[in-house]
TrEMBL record:
The keyword Transport applies. Residues 14-23, 57-68, 238-249 have a biased composition (Low complexity). Residues 1-10 have a biased composition (Polar residues). It comes from Anopheles merus. Belongs to the globin family. Residues 85-234 form the Globin domain. Residues 1-30, 54-76, 238-262 are annotated as: Disordered. The keyword Iron applies. Keywords: Heme, Iron, Metal-binding, Oxygen transport, Transport. GO terms for molecular function: heme binding; metal ion binding; oxygen binding; oxygen carrier activity. This is Globin domain-containing protein.
Length: 262
């Protein structure tokens, strides 16, 4: 009797083990099924995100002003025009950083021109409206200089915001460069004199946000803009400047009309 009970107990234990094993297997199957469904759902969401991005891009018609920042989504960075000396990530950083400058355009512009005249006092003679402003204090409080600084910064702003559409960018910046042909005594090397004052003013405005990486991106960007200004200036030598610019609103010049002797 004792032996029979032992065998029965063994059979019951074995049966319980089989039942437990089946239950564990069912749980594993449920986990695998749930994981598979989750993975498939995530893949569908990513695919949908890519398609939505394409649709959004096409609906914007390439208008850079309708977007404050380029999109970096699940599809990865969009391809960059090979004519632009920035990677997709660098362009994104540049446009994002520029938002800080766009909120302080006037002060950044005045700082830039004060630095320009500090390093190149002879350029004051190119500006009829404020060539008599000899001190930093006079320059900082001059309404004429503030107005001109705003115009120049708005020109740079339009150029930087136009990096998503380089055809429009080149057309605009070439026109700005060509407009300087109307200024007697202006030389193309004068364009390069704004490079360091611009970087210095940006550094002052951004403060701690002006990291080494951001500085490198700004250097590439302002160099690209100045090279394009020079190209427009040189190309206009063989063209009638008035015909080049009469079809659109006159571009803002980096310098004012010179003071002409009476």
């Amino acid at each position: 009797m004792g032996g029979w009970e032992t065998n029965a107990q063994k059979r019951a234990t074995k049966l319980n083990n089989k039942t437990n094993t089946k239950q564990l297997q069912k749980k594993k199957n449920r986990h695998i099924h749930t994981y598979t469904q989750t993975s498939q759902t995530n893949r569908k969401r990513n695919a949908m995100g890519c398609e939505l991005t394409k649709l959004a891009s096409s609906s914007n018609g390439g208008n850079s002003k309708s977007n404050n920042l380029p999109s970096l989504d699940a599809c990865g960075p969009p391809p960059v025009d090979s004519r632009l000396p920035l990677t997709a990530k660098q362009k994104y950083t540049m446009v994002a950083s520029w938002k800080g400058i766009s909120r302080a355009m006037e002060t950044t512009g005045i700082t830039m021109f004060i630095k320009l005249f500090e390093e190149h006092a002879d350029l004051l003679n190119m500006f009829a409206k404020f060539k008599e402003l000899k001190t930093k204090e006079e320059q900082a409080t001059s309404e004429e200089l503030q107005e001109h600084a705003n115009k120049v910064m708005n020109t740079l702003d339009e150029g930087i915001r136009g990096l998503d559409d380089l055809d429009t960018f080149f057309e605009f910046i070439h026109q700005v460069g060509a407009s300087h042909r109307r200024i007697p005594g202006f030389k193309q090397e004068y364009f390069w004199r704004i490079e360091e004052p611009f970087l210095s003013a940006v550094s002052t405005t951004l403060g701690d946000r002006y990291t080494q990486n951001v500085e490198g991106i700004y250097k590439l960007t302002i160099k690209f803009i100045i090279e394009t200004l020079v190209a427009g200036y040189e190309a206009s030598a063989n063209n009638n400047v008035d015909n080049t610019t009469s079809s659109s609103t006159p571009a803002t010049k980096l310098s004012d009309e010179p003071n002409r002797a009476s």
